[in-house]
Write a structure and sequence with these properties.
The protein is mainly alpha-helical and about 500 residues long. The protein contains 20 helices and no strands.
């Protein structure tokens, strides 16, 4: 139980570095962009950020997890850090050089031949963020969550300030006759300022990381790199497959529907997806805390028992968040502009999909601590096949709602396969029936809320709060959920 409380505490701290920045993004930038930009313009932002996710996975090639696995365990921590750092610097530099040389064909391939400047900024953002991954991993591995969180918050604050200046303040100044603003602001570059703001945030963060990058003389060990790459390449395949599961729908939507309508649909779906992806904030901060915790716990006698208990309490916590997002649509809809609100229909679907992803992340410990990362790659590829199949078959018929359901189909298939394969190689006695019961209860409460929804927002809020309290009560009675979290030693 002490381990669970420790993990919960670390998760909260890392939340300031993951949830707070991304919540600021959702609470400020998403409402801002969906009120300033049109459907097609927001479609550009949504699609290019989807490509950015894929590029970032390729350029980090599993080195974060590999660093945690090797540092101090399979090689001296300083050598692992230096080798990973130099490796990522080299590949990031080569990526930038390649994009610079082939900027026109790359822009054409992505469908932005008229906007190569978007792709240049895209490349710089990815390269900087990929290289920064190892210094951030060092902070996590050395229990520096406060500093980690501070730097993440600085990144998003810079992004917000730059975006608001060029997309809101600069046009207002121009309207008031301040001609000097035209020296730094171009009204035709509107979408480009979204990427410029992101680039500024990444660059400032990299500057803040310099003391940790040069905290020692980097030591590069070619043989060590070979061992690290042997461990990481299945993580790269799995990470790439996982990212495809997350973003492929945005890329396919534009091409399956076609033309300006396709780009507008991507923008509409992207806005609703942003709300549903609030669940991923918790998943991400949990992963940041859980990954080093799981590796640290791997050698202990009660490791499997800890993993099983962790899974149960993770699911309970995630379902509370799931209900919090979906029981109060009147509050959540504030996050996006009125022109985008029809896409809120996908929010329960997307958030449930991310809950299943969180379950898979918990399960994935079996192949990571047992050095069987190739299984993670194969399992995630199963998810890719499901994602592609559901999108290709059902999107032309049901539109972007089918793209949302593809996430549930994908992650559910991964959870099922991972469970049965994991029980063969690294059996863990998860409380499967309890977990299933909690998920069923949460979904049932959400359906009750929808059935009882009326015209009065106040009455709706009261009913929804009572439904949420029912879930709280069940979790406390059955598993002492709140007693565990808040018990004092």
């Amino acid at each position: 139980m002490n381990d669970i409380r420790k993990l919960a505490g670390q998760t909260v701290i890392y939340g300031f570095g993951t949830v707070v920045p991304r919540f600021l993004n959702y609470a400020l930038l998403t409402p801002f962009y969906t009120r300033i930009l049109g459907l097609e313009q927001y479609g550009v932002v949504t699609e290019l950020y989807a490509w950015m996710v894929l590029a970032l996975v390729i350029l980090t090639y599993g080195m974060e997890t590999t660093y945690f696995r090797f540092a101090g365990k399979k090689a001296p921590a300083e050598e692992v850090y230096g080798t990973a750092l130099i490796s990522l610097f080299t590949t990031s530099a080569l990526f930038l050089l390649t994009i610079s040389i082939f900027i026109n064909p790359v822009s054409g391939f992505l469908g932005y031949e008229q906007y190569p400047e978007y792709i240049r900024m895209f490349a710089w953002i990815v390269a900087i963020d990929a290289f920064s991954a190892i210094p951030f991993a060092w902070l996590r591995n050395n229990n520096r969550p406060v500093l980690f969180s501070t730097l993440k918050i600085i990144n998003v604050l810079v992004t917000i300030i730059i975006a608001f200046f060029f997309l809101k303040s600069a046009p207002s100044l121009a309207e008031k006759g301040n001609l000097w603003i035209h020296k730094v602001w171009n009204p035709d570059f509107q979408v480009g300022y979204v990427f410029l703001a992101n680039l500024a945030g990444s660059a400032i963060t990299l500057l803040c990381l310099i003391p940790f990058i040069f905290r020692m003389k980097p030591v590069f060990d070619r043989k060590l790199l070979g061992k690290m790459l042997a461990y990481s390449w299945p993580l790269l395949v799995g990470g790439m497959a996982g990212s495809l599961n997350e973003v492929l729908d945005k890329i396919l939507l534009r091409r399956l529907i076609g033309g300006a309508e396709g780009l507008a649909t991507v923008g509409l779906y992207g806005a609703g997806y942003k709300v549903g992806v609030l669940m991923s904030l918790f998943i991400q901060m949990y992963r940041f805390a859980a990954e080093p915790f799981f590796f640290e716990k791997a050698g202990s006698k009660d490791a499997k028992e800890t993993y099983a208990v962790t899974m149960k309490y993770f699911v309970i916590t995630a379902l509370i968040l799931f209900l919090g997002i979906n029981l109060y649509p009147e509050v959540v809809q504030i996050l996006i502009g009125e022109n985008f609100r029809e896409s809120l229909i996908v929010v329960p679907i997307i958030s449930m999909g991310y809950l299943l992803l969180g379950i898979f992340i918990n399960q994935s410990i079996w192949y990571k601590v047992d050095d069987k990362t190739i299984y993670g790659a194969w399992i995630t590829l199963v998810g890719v096949v499901v994602t592609v199949a559901v999108n290709l078959i059902f999107v032309p018929v049901f539109g972007y709602v089918a793209a949302a359901w593809a996430h549930i189909a994908c992650y559910l298939s991964m959870v099922i396969v991972s469970y049965f394969v994991g029980q063969k190689y690294y059996p863990i006695k998860y409380e499967t029936w309890k977990i299933f019961t909690y998920i069923t209860l949460a979904v049932a409460l959400l359906f009750v809320s929808m059935l009882l929804a009326g015209e009065s927002k106040i009455i709706n809020a009261v009913i929804d709060t009572l439904l949420l309290f029912i879930f709280f009560a069940v979790a406390e009675i059955r598993d002492k959920f709140f007693t565990l979290l808040f018990k004092r030693e």
